[in-house]
Specification:
Elements lengths: L11 E4 L2 E4 L10 H5 L2 E3 L2 E6 L2 E5 L1 H14 L8 H15 L4 E3 L2 E4 L13 E5 L1 E2 L9 H4 L1 E5 L20 H13 L4 E5 L5 E4 L3 E6 L2 E5 L9 H12 L4 E4 L3 H6 L2 E6 L3 E8 L2 E2 L7 H14 L10 E3 L2
Parallel strand pairs: 10-11, 10-17, 14-15
Antiparallel strand pairs: 1-2, 1-8, 3-7, 4-5, 4-6, 5-19, 6-9, 7-8, 11-12, 13-14, 13-16, 16-17, 17-18
Helix pairs in contact: 2-3
């Protein structure tokens, strides 16, 4: 499935200790997940590697899932290790070697009010085959983006650091606006007008050989791929700074790229119709992208032990 096609999932989904068929993983219309977006999730990739299928940064993703669940007072009765084992077992049961995994914790059918205590907590682990989020060509040619008219929320309005489904209503508005104007993606500004993140990605700039990324100021998600790139930049002896980023800095950057589990490391070739650098993937982006994919696909050294092999 591409980013816009109909989703065709793998046959089995893990639900609270059992495997159920994809078509049986239904939620009642009166569940709190539907009524009030009471749901948190993660996006994780399993890659085919020379040593067999492996999940990239599985435990780190599940740790963030637990933090998101705790923030919304619906933490499931499973440990991170139990969810990791369930993820691996479900990938094996589905017989896939590469896939996208979306563990989800939600409030099911029970109460109909804002008091969720009588609505059960349900945990699912679905997965499906998925290629490059913005298209295979995007990884080399880059994408055209715009600055969205929709702003990211202010700190302490909604918890942007939690990967909650309701947060992505804003992301959908950003993407729909961008698409309607012929762009592949959007960049959001925070309430103070500073650069925050993309619709579902963190953002990096390359300026005079230095790698910059917006600080985590309560308007964006602390991305696991973002953290990975920070580690890679240090490993490659690149100067790396987390700082405040203004909109005009996007127009003057030598290179720009998105990071995220779905987007991986995707170059940006233009912003608001203005060409970034030479209008193609830049040399620093290419170095970081190559090392990221090498790590995730098990084709190079993994000093951090980030791969969980199914075998």
């Amino acid at each position: 499935m591409g980013s816009t096609g109909k989703l065709t999932g793998s046959p089995w989904i893990w639900k609270d200790g059992d495997h159920i068929r994809w078509e049986d993983a239904t939620v009642h219309v009166m569940s709190l997940a539907v009524q009030f977006a009471a749901s948190v999730f993660e996006g994780i990739r399993c890659y085919e590697t020379p040593s067999g299928p492996a999940v990239f940064r599985l435990h780190d993703h599940l740790k963030r899932l637990m933090t998101s669940s705790r923030t919304y007072r619906m933490q499931p009765d499973y440990t991170i290790d139990e969810l990791a084992d369930a993820t691996v077992a479900t990938i094996r049961k589905n017989g896939v070697t590469a896939c996208y995994v979306r563990p989800t914790v939600l409030r099911g059918y029970g109460a109909s009010s804002m008091h969720p205590e009588k609505s059960p907590i349900e945990t699912y682990i679905p997965m499906w085959p998925w290629g490059a989020y913005l298209g295979e060509e995007a990884l080399t040619r880059g994408v055209d983006v715009c600055v969205s008219s929709w702003h990211r929320p202010a700190p302490n309005t909604i918890p942007s650091g939690a990967k909650a489904s309701g947060n992505y209503l804003l992301s959908a508005l950003m993407v729909m606006e961008a698409s309607s104007h012929g762009y592949a993606e959007a960049i959001g500004l925070g309430p103070g007008g500073l650069v925050s993140e993309g619709s579902g990605q963190n953002l990096f700039l390359v300026v005079d050989g230095d790698v910059l990324t917006p600080i985590l100021d309560g308007t964006s998600l602390s991305g696991i791929t973002r953290h990975t790139v920070l580690k890679i930049a240090a490993e490659l002896d690149l100067t790396m700074r987390e700082q405040l980023v203004t909109r005009e800095m996007l127009y003057g950057a030598d290179e720009l790229f998105f990071t995220g589990t779905a987007s991986e490391v995707t170059p940006i070739r233009s912003v608001d119709g203005l060409t970034v650098g030479e209008g193609r993937r830049g040399p620093v982006t290419e170095r970081i992208q190559r090392r990221y994919l090498e790590l995730a696909q098990g084709e190079g050294p993994d000093p951090w032990g980030w791969l969980t092999y199914l075998g």
